[in-house]
Amino acid sequence: MRILLVEDDQALGEGIRTALKPEGYTVDWLQDGASSLHALSHESFELAILDLGLPRMDGLQVLKHLRAAANPVPVLILTARDATSDRIAGLDAGADDYLIKPFDVAELKARLRALLRRSFQRPQPALEYRGISLDPASQVVEYQGQTINLPRKEFLLLHELLIQPGRVLTRDKLQQALYGWDEEVESNALEVHVHHLRKKFFPELIRTVRGVGYLVDK
Ligand code: CA
């Protein structure tokens, strides 16, 4: 579960990131509006936590740009206690929820769980591919009618590949989808996951594009 955290307060940002890590979230953290809009537009996140008061484009503008581009990523905004008008503007601009600073991390976690539940309940058809069925909502994977239990990273990798068959996904993009920006990744981690998926399904499932990345054929 990859989350983009956008918060320019160093202590708060560190605190949120530290609190979310044990929950199994991959948290990438940016501290200004412009680079977060760029990241949200070019990479895939399951959710964004967006502070409103930010340098280089405020959070409200980021949100407006996202929604104007029909980007559906669930967004939780962080606002100051006295800024009722910000909250209203944020919700009007397409925020899915908000928290008022200072907040309890337990509440933040509960809000994130609720948002993610809601977003997975949006109709997302199961992906079907040559005998494989992957249901993003229930996270169940079947192959020829048998349930296959995949570790989280393998599930994420298979999901990334199956939602865009016929498209070469670069190593960088896949690594970011699996690990985020900061997590230390063994240089051959991706190869190992690919190897496991080929073994659990069939060898031709994932094609290697030398020097670039991987794809599943259309
Ligand atoms: Ca701020």
From TrEMBL:
- Pfam families tied to this protein: Response_reg, Trans_reg_C
Which molecular-function annotation in GO is an example for this chain? transcription cis-regulatory region binding
- Tell me which residues make up the OmpR/PhoB-type domain: 124-218
Where does it live in the cell? Cytoplasm
The answer to whether UniProt assigns keyword Phosphoprotein to this entry is yes
- Got a GO cellular component term for this one? cytosol
Q: Which Gene3D superfamilies match?
A: 3.40.50.2300, 6.10.250.690, Winged helix-like DNA-binding domain superfamily/Winged helix DNA-binding domain (1.10.10.10)
Q: Which residues bind DNA?
A: 124-218
* Chief subcellular location: cytoplasm
Q: Which UniProt keywords apply?
A: Cytoplasm, DNA-binding, Phosphoprotein, Transcription, Transcription regulation, Two-component regulatory system
PANTHER family linked to this entry: REGULATOR OF RPOS (PTHR48111), TRANSCRIPTIONAL REGULATORY PROTEIN QSEB (PTHR48111:SF35)
**Entry protein name:** DNA-binding response regulator
